[in-house]
Amino acid sequence: MADQPAPMSRPVTGVLFALVGFVVFSSHDVLIKSLGGNYAVFQIVFFSVLFSFVPMTLIMATDRTEASFVPHKPLYLLLRTTTVIIGMICGFYAFTVLTLAEAYSLLFASPLLITALSVPFLGEKVGARRWAAVLLGLIGVIIVLRPGLQPLSLGHLAGLAAAVANSIGAIVVRKVGREERSQTLILFPMVAVLLIMAVVMPGTYKPMPLLDLGTLALMGLLLIAGQMMVLNAYRNAPAALIAPMQYSQIIWASLFGFVFFAEVPDLWIAIGSGLIISSGVFVVWRESSGANSTRTPVTRTRSFRIGVPWLSAKAADKHPEG
């Protein structure tokens, strides 16, 4: 029997896994938006996490590593949990009130923020070119927001808050990933989300027909499926090849937004998104060149999903800090 290919030796397979995974993630976000007009964001978050909790717990249980769930860095874990909660609430809300393309444009500022935050918190050395890319990407965010030309809504602020929360959470995982089990970094935030949503949800709860409950269950399955796809992508191809693939979601966002919600991104969103995406791809490329980044915080974050602690936690397991 022929030997199995070595890890990171099947780039085409990796790219296909990535593209399918990011289509699945975009489909998940379409379902968020479809429910947003009928239910409060707290209710959507609660049930989406609830339906993904059981399969994710079963997957985590397959890890036979003998270790305690007691956190080694409880304050960092508390910060990580807080960022997941904020990221989910704000990110879900942004998807329900903004166009899909606009929401993605704001959320895709995360790689730029991670690059900036990696300097004080990870000791990353960021050169002039990556700082220029960060600045250009932030200009793209301003173009999308167009302050003074259009009112800044709560949805815009939520999208920015989600991007900031995701970035801080990613930095925390890179900081303590070597000391904390990935299961700890995953389980604590998920349980916290369920408990907090269970407390705040009753004030806005609306009974849900079986069809909508089925939609939420499908969201949970899509979240797990997307994560599995992207993890397999990184197992088969280098991060430098896979990380930029996440920006394909802006294409699906524009297509799905047009087909399902009659959304047509205007010229300013297109220009701003182009700057944000170009800057993010450049940051990934500079990190992956080897000599330009010591800790590669963006490429090792794996995915800038809202409320998904799994991918970055697993990445920290595979690529410990130091």
Name a few traits of the molecule.
322 residues
Low-confidence parts, pLDDT < 50 over ≥5 residues? 1-6, 318-322
Oligomer: single chain
Distance between the termini: 38 Å
Report strand %: under 5%
Mean pLDDT: 83
The major beta sheet can be summarized as: none
Give the structural class. Answer: mainly alpha
Total domain units: 1
Report the radius of gyration as a whole number of Å.
19 Å
Overall strand count: 0
How many DSSP helices? 13
What is the 3D form? globular
DSSP helix fraction? over 70%
What order do the helices and strands follow?
HHHHHHHHHHHHH
Characterization of this structure:
The protein is mostly helical. It has one domain. It is built from 13 helices and no strands. Helix 1 crosses helix 3 and helix 4 runs parallel beside helix 12. The longest helix is centred in the C-terminal third of the chain and has 27 residues. The radius of gyration is 19 Å and the shape is globular. The N terminus and C terminus are likely disordered.
In short:
This protein is mainly alpha-helical and 322 residues long. The protein has 13 helices and no strands.
Helix/strand layout:
Layout: H1 11-36, H2 41-61, H3 74-97, H4 100-107, H5 110-122, H6 128-145, H7 154-176, H8 182-200, H9 210-236, H10 239-242, H11 249-261, H12 267-288, H13 309-318
Helix pairs in contact: 1-3, 1-9, 1-11, 2-3, 2-8, 2-9, 3-7, 3-8, 4-7, 4-11, 4-12, 5-6, 5-7, 6-12, 7-13, 8-13
